[in-house]
Design goal:
With 164 residues, the protein is an alpha+beta fold. The chain has one domain (2-162): Roll (Bifunctional nuclease domain), CATH 3.10.690. It contains five helices and eight strands; from the N terminus they run E-E-E-H-H-E-E-E-H-E-H-E-H. It has an eight-stranded mixed beta sheet. Helix 1 runs parallel beside helix 3 and helix 2 (60-70) crosses helix 3 (107-117). The N and C termini lie far apart (43 Å).
Length: 164
Amino acid sequence: MKQVRVLGVALDSAMQHMVLLKPILEEPGEGRVLPIWIGPQEATSIAIAIEDEVPPRPLTHDLMKTLLDTVGAHVTRVDVTRIDDGTFYAEISVTTPTGSLVLDARPSDAVALAVRADAAIWVAEGVLDEAAIPAEMVSLEGDEEKLDEFKKFLDEVDPEDFQG
């Protein structure tokens, strides 16, 4: 396993969201980056957390963190354990007053929770070997403009906009 950090959230050329994970001991622009494609809600949640933004109402991952805190539990680490037919798998390790648990999770949810809980994120070597790309292929330039647009959206969004 290699410990990674969240490099950012980005869009690919098909406008699909992805979270970018980079081994912590590798220099910026060097080594590898692991892109994991995620849904737009999870991308929003991760972006808000890494930017230390506070949404007007708690997002699902904020609620998960609050629930864990309320019952005296905390996330100790997150592991991206494997990739199978293009699907990534992750686990969340949680310490509770009654012992430790390992929970199956989607990587997007695991990363969103780890960022909020300041928990370490680890990726299996085999996953990096299979799915990581050279770091020089990743550019986060122009993402500030996207982030500004997203912040404007958050300021103007009304919860009623999401009612069916």
